[in-house]
Amino acid sequence: MTRSSLLAAAALVALLAACDNNDNPSPPVYGANPPLPEQQRGLLPSMKIAKPANWGDRKPTVPEGFTVTAIATDLGIPRQTLVLPNGDILVAEGRGGSAPALRPKDVIAGVIKARGTTSVPSGNRITLLRDADGDGKYEERTVFADHLNAPYGLAFANGQIYVANQDALVRFPYREGQTRAEGPPEKVTDLPSYINHHWTKSLAASPDGQFLYVGIGSNSNITERGMPAEADRAMVWEIDARTGAHRPYATGLRNPTALAIQPGTGTLWAVVNERDELGPNLVPDYLTSVREGAFYGWPYSYWGQNVDPRAQPQKPEMVAAAIKPDYALGSHVAALGVAFSSPVMGERFADGVFVGEHGSWNRSVPSGYKVIFVPFRDGAPAGDPVEVVTGFMGEDGHTYGRPVGVTVDPKGALIVADDLSNTVWRVAVSERSPTAQAPAEAPADMGSATTDGNGSSN
Amino acid sequence: MVAIVDHGRPARAIHPLHAVLLAASLPLFLGGLLCDIAYSRSFEIQWSNFAAWLIAGGMVFAGFSLLWAFIDLFRAGRRRGHGLAYFVLLVITVALGLVNAFVHARDAWGTMPEGLILSAVVTLTTALAIWFGFSSFRMGNHTGHRMDRMGGTR
After folding, report:
1. CA angle (A409 as vertex; A406, A413 as ends), nearest 5
2. Which of A154, A239, A411, A430 shows the greatest Cβ crowding within 10 Å of its Cβ?
């Protein structure tokens, strides 16, 4: 009797040990041709939840020649930022999504994942930050607009501030120097919001202001809410700014969480979060130029023709049509921000993009939790990324912040939204290297500022 | 007769609550299997959601049955034969059922084909556990019947 119960106990222990994933994470792999290991489907998905902790006296770590300051704290979950022509910064704050738990797994995972995020209520507003005297301290803070529905993407074009709520693209008329919207926004068009598993709607405006691009994430990890739920999902819409009419610009992009227009070429770029539960080293999130009419694989395949058997029924003709993205950022880094740099950021960061990596939750060795810089040459990514802002996760596993949106301020600073500590960080160039001649200090009135490039991204 | 009385309490029929716990897992695991079959033939994701919940429900009942059977192992030495087989089958059912629940936590077609195979095996082991479970109690009844005949009290 005792022996049989011992046997039973031993069997249970062995079973639980067998549940432990064969997890062998490699460091994130970058570039155009990342190694793609075999798909792994462990019994228990690895989850390593960030233990949130207060920054206290700590700050993020920035490279030599830069200083970092918190320019706004106690926000209502800041996600993306936008620098207006006069230097004012808009911050979109909120939490969206109302996807119901469909399976026992959703209930359990929801509880676990909530431990790694902020618990403050969704701001559902746009906050304006102003540094009137140009000393890098943003002493004025007003609510530009509130009662929005999980605003995320921001863009400025045509004298309008465009805001991508989780269910609609709206616009506010904007006069220079305004600190508050004159009234409720005008709707440009509805955006797909059924279920809204990936609720964030990223936004960028074409350089001429004629079109707005909205990134719409998939309604599932890998079609587990059914294919009908994926209508109008996992794609970038091109929306006519005047009529609100839309068409799919590119498809098969699982979760295009941030968009940016490349200065000079006017090409649309995106960072995209790829699928989970194929192992710690699959599938790389990526940075890519978005080719009009292209299909990027989701859900049928990834990184070109690597078939994902979980999407059924399979579509070999779609797999064959899938194109490879430009540049892998590493698996599960959760890239949520992208911004093109400019020479104001110093010689080292003059040509390339900054990418905000929110950080993994389903990997035994965390990845992401930093802002990186991907250097460009001749308009395309060239070489390994450089860490720019780090220290969001301490070596003891405590997590102080999680970067989301990044924006380059023409005054020579990188604006980073942190949705765990509800802070906006400003990483400013403190010493200019002599070779990096900034194209002049931003004038106080900013009357000549243009709307393309950095400002309109995100 | 005296020896029987000295062995402790007289054997009884299966406790009604234990019977309910034991029997209730079968339709749930069977339902999970049928839903898995429906999903594997239709790719209609809702069947897979149903299967996940039915398996979770089956696990609740199977888990409590196992707990009860485990306690009974210590309480009732007389059920060594079928009683042990019942207990071992329940252990296998709960162990494989747990694996199956984790497999059903995978997304979309990721549950296949392991989920379907495990659902079939778990349904089978549940049926066998019920068979042996009720058989062993029937043996207990037999003893009890003899005791009744011999004037023992229940």
Report:
1. 80
2. A154
By DSSP bridging, strand A327-331 and strand A284-289 are antiparallel
Instruction: Tell me if B52 and A105 make a contact (CB, 8 A cut-off).
Output: yes
The CATH code of the domain at A42-456 is: 2.120.10.30
By CB neighbour count within 10 A (0-12 exposed, 13-18 middle, 19+ buried), where does A38 fall? Answer: exposed
Give the distance from residue A168's alpha carbon to the nearest chain B alpha carbon, in angstroms. 28
* Residue of chain A nearest B112, judged by CA positions: A310
- Domain-by-domain residue ranges, chain A? 42-456
Give me the pLDDT at residue A118, please: 82
The pLDDT score that the predictor gives to residue B137 is 54
More confident residue, B72 or A143: A143
Nearest by CB to residue B52, choosing from A44, A103, A276, is: A103
Top mean pLDDT of A321-330, A427-436, A444-453 is at: A321-330
Would you list the domain boundaries of chain B? 22-149
CA–CA distances in Å: residue A266 to residues A71, A160, A208, A257: 30, 19, 9, 19
* pLDDT tens string A387-423: 999 999 988 879 999 999 999 999 999 999 999 999 9
Q: A24-33, A136-145, B136-145: which has the minimum mean pLDDT?
A: B136-145
Which of A19, A226, A312 has its CB closest to that of B102? A19
What does A322-342 look like in DSSP terms, one character per residue? ----SEEEEET--EEEEEE--
Tens digit of pLDDT for each residue in A347-357? 999 999 999 99
**Least CB–CB distance from B108: residue in A5, A11, A224:** A224
ipTM comes to 0.82
Q: What is the mean pLDDT of residues A172-187?
A: 96
From the candidates B109, B111, B116, which should be mutated to test the interface with A, based on the most A CB atoms within 10 A?
B109
* Cβ contact A224–B45 (<8 Å): yes
What whole-number distance in Å separates Cα of residue A443 and Cα of residue B37?
69
The structure tokens 């119960």 sit at: A5
- DSSP one-letter string for chain B: -HHHHHTSSPP-PPPHHHHHHHHHHHHHHHHHHHHHHHHHHH--HHHHHHHHHHHHHHHHHHHHHHHHHHHHHHH-GGGHHHHHHHHHHHHHHHHHHHHHHHHTTS-GGGGTTHHHHHHHHHHHHHHHHHHHHHHHHHHHHHHHHHHHHTT---
Q: Are A91 and A129 in contact (CB under 8 A)?
A: yes
pLDDT digits (tens, 9 = 90+) for B118-153: 999 999 999 999 998 887 654 444 444 444 444 434
Distance CA A176, CA A453 (A): 19
Tell me the pLDDT of chain A averaged across its residues: 88
- Residues with Cβ within 8 Å of B64's Cβ and at least 6 positions away in sequence, in order, are B21
8 Å CB contact of B45 and A225: yes
Q: Does B147 touch chain A (CB under 8 A)?
A: no
